[in-house]
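User: Earlier you gave me the apo prediction for this protein. Now I'd like the version with 2-phosphoglyceric acid bound, so I can compare the two side by side. Same sequence as before, with the ligand SMILES added.
Assistant: Got it. Here's the input I'm using:
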Amino acid sequence: MTLGTLVLLRHGESEWNAKNLFTGWVDVDLTAQGEAEARRGGELLREHGLLPDVVHTSVLRRAIRTSQLALDAADRLWIPVRRSWRLNERHYGALQGKNKKQTLEEYGEEQFMLWRRSYDTPPPPIADGDEFSQADDPRYAALPPELKPRTECLKDVLGRALPYWYDAIVPDLLAGRTVLVAAHGNSLRAIVKHIDGISDEAIAALNIPTGIPLRYDLDPVTLRPVTAGGQYLDPAAAAEAAAAVANQGR
Ligand SMILES: O=C(O)[C@@H](CO)OP(=O)(O)O
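And here is the structure of the complex with 2-phosphoglyceric acid:
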């Protein structure tokens, strides 16, 4: 049996990436550069003959718009779409809206990195009345309180993303489809951690660049990657951009 191909795509640069602010579930748009990155991602898909049959996105506009710009560039805007909050960026709790450089200076390197990249230490929860809270956001109105986060660590993200991975994405792969997942730095880190079997410690050093498709061919029995870490369609640009993500705040 042959499995379909998985393509992971982090949204292009967002307005808050450009301003160096913690974003999480705040629904900011792409910058002009982010739009260009998304189109370039779609061109890379077309150049590699990697044409998606179905797309899964989060419910945040930076991922939705990235998927549309990329699919338009690949002439695949017509394919079926599924969206889920389970692919959202990690909820950044009380850090949402805070500047990364200022946070680093105020709390120091160790605390900053614990909040930003540790597997199981979430930032402090956001208050419901905070201007950057999603407590009253209608798109999450159907979620019961215990599922609606006020903060998340990467472990929490993996916990809420895995049901979607097995219930929605894996069935598409088993049907032989080329599956595009347009999502976020930390929701994609959670999925990559799972499929590549990366340890809780090692995942801290893994960063995903914006707008560059990451291809995974998975073994049909184990669902493990044939090539560990997958293959970026533009590896040189991906390495440079991932290093820039790692250095945010400095
Ligand atoms: O702010 C965020 O939501 C994320 C992604 O942009 O940032 P970080 O890479 O610091 O986890």
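For your comparison, keep in mind: Strands lie at 5-10, 54-57, 81-83, 179-183, 214-217, 231-232.
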